Amino acid sequence: MIWGATLLLAGPELFRRLEGRVPDQAEQLGIGVLGARYLTQGGLEALAPGRFARLHTVVEMVHASSMLLLAVRQPSRRRIAVVSGAQAALAGWRAWRCR
Questions:
Q1: Structure pTM?
Q2: Which of 16, 22, 37, 58 has its CA 20 to 30 A from that of 29?
Q3: What letter would DSSP give residue 20?
Q4: 71-91, pLDDT tens digit by residue?
Q5: What highest taxon heads this organism's lineage (predicted)?
């Protein structure tokens, strides 16, 4: 939940610090959607610990895989894709361990 709230409240600033530029409109939309997803996932886990662990694991692994693809195909977004993908892989690993 904390990561989701952080993305919603300060996502564009985090992006700027990582990439050295302001996120474009599509990137800002992605930051907002990702923040909302993490906030929702965190809320579900808080309400029913472990119940959604498998789903959480799958969602995070899909996210990590998509970020790997983005890093390969769009070098201009590589740094943010690697950071986002690594965070998703770590979250997926943690969720898998909790199932």
A1: 0.86
A2: 58
A3: S
A4: 999 999 999 999 999 999 999
A5: Bacteria
